[in-house]
Amino acid sequence: MAERSIARSSTLLASGTVASRILGFLKAIVLAQAIGVFISGNMFAIGNQLPNTIYVIVAGGALSAVLVPQIVRSALHADGGRGYINKLVTISLLLLAVTTVIATILAPFLVSITAHALPADQAALATAFAYWCLPQIFFYGVYTILGEVLNARNSFGPFTLAPILNNIVALAGLIVFIGVYGADPNGLRSISWWTPSSIALLAGTATLGIALQGLILFAFWRRVGLTYRPDFRWRGVNLGATGRIAGWSFGMILVTTAAGFVETNVVATASTDSDASVAVLGNAWLIFMLPHSVIAVSIATAYFTRMSENAAGGDLAKVRSDVSASIRQITVMMVLAAIVLVVVAYPFGRVIIDSTAGAAAIGDVLIAFVIGLPAFSILFVLQRAFFALGDTRTPFFTTLFQGVVFSAGAVVVLLVVPVEWRGVGVALMLSLAGILQTILIAVLIRRKLSGSARRTIVSFAKDALAAVPASAAGVVVFVLFGGASDTGFALSGRIQAVVSMVVIGAVMAAVYAITLRLLRSSELSDAVGPILARVRRR
């Protein structure tokens, strides 16, 4: 029964995420059509990514690490955890509000440390965007807090469906922007073209979408028996223990963000009008995150609540079983996703941007990112296993290790790699550092939970073996579609690129599935079975 519940929850999360990601890609395409991916695109990317960065520093990782396990434990309170939840939400929202005000005031300083090498006029445009975008910090927090409370109460739908509303609003804003000011897919507009009204329309609608994404979740609290009332009486519900747990998560996020500043500053040294810079890396990361968000996050989020319940009951054997099952189901899909994305990297770039140079830049960076995709998704599960056990200290030190490795590698990229390849070099260093971090945290979780990892290792070996013929088949189809030439069918337009991607992906998936069946691997059917069953019922 529990397995069926996990499967249903994972399928629901995946369904909502697919819809949200499709809209997200459509939004990225329209954004690239509106302002391009070079000068204007880079400045908007810097201003629009700042609120996410600051939010993550202050609360993002801490909330993700703490909320679900602590809310699950609070259910043992006499009131079912209602008092604890209201107090936790109140103090969290207050912290976020103060942070948002301070960050908005400090917008020029934040832009300067994010990308210190920018010319004065470009920095001024990025700062103007940042003033409109930084209020997103508060609403990111609202979305995370309210959504994690719902997840802890086994209500997964609203959290995964709310981003659809965000994407619709932001997409509508971009369409209006193009209707009023026209399109600029090649990024030819000068910095002086931008006016307060055009900046407000582009960045303001982006912030409006984030605000609605968070606030809409209040409407779903009554369904899980909760009603939010601000409560400033913070004593008596063990918030001190919660703060200690969150402290290590806060440190972990500081390390991650410091590495992020290193990344942005190194990438920003590339030419903003021709090379892979901030906007290109952002678009490549959006593609990279598609399979991770749809598959890994959906499966891991559903398992996380049960891990927390089993950890609270002291049943480490069940926690170990949940970790193994989730990793095996995620990895079999991530290996397929990784090899498909490598083969279709350039057509995917062509879908995002109607420019040969932009498509090539996105494709190069995407390939470098995708090398670390399976490890990235496994890391996501292993970190949450530690969070479920109430241990945020270990993930902090593994993240510190990753941050040091990446930052050292980024410095090497800055000093050695030609400017036009720095974006690719940074992406490769992120993949390498992530793989090493995953290996380290896997060794540590095995020591903590004991037991054998043989089944997981054998499963991954079968996945890797099945990837070989699937990759060969994909490359053959790619070449047949003219992918080896900029003027070939696969790269000649958006529709052609989509057709090529669909055919290549279908062929690779079929070969991969057949090979896994010959290898007697059951993980693929375990992962996609619930989705297929739901489709059949419909």
Describe the fold and architecture.
This protein is 80% helix and 0% strand. It is mostly helical. Helix 13 (356-370) runs parallel beside helix 16 (422-449). It is globular, with a radius of gyration of 23 Å.
In short:
The chain is mainly α and 538 residues long. The chain contains 19 helices and no strands.
Describe the structure using short key phrases.
538 residues; mainly alpha; 19 helices; disordered C terminus
Average of pLDDT:
81
Low-confidence stretches: 534-538
How many helical stretches? 19
Task: Give the % helix.
Answer: over 70%
Write down how many β-strands occur, each being a DSSP E stretch of 2 or more residues: 0
Task: Kindly name the structural category.
Answer: mainly alpha
Q: What is the overall silhouette?
A: globular
Major sheet, described briefly? none
What value does the Rg take, in angstroms?
23 Å
Beta-strand level of the residues, as a percent range? under 5%
Distance between the termini: 21 Å
Total domain modules = 1
The helix/strand series, from N terminus to C terminus, equals HHHHHHHHHHHHHHHHHHH
Describe the SSE topology.
Layout: H1 2-35, H2 39-74, H3 82-105, H4 107-114, H5 120-133, H6 136-152, H7 157-181, H8 196-215, H9 239-267, H10 278-312, H11 316-343, H12 345-352, H13 356-370, H14 373-388, H15 393-416, H16 422-449, H17 454-480, H18 494-518, H19 523-537
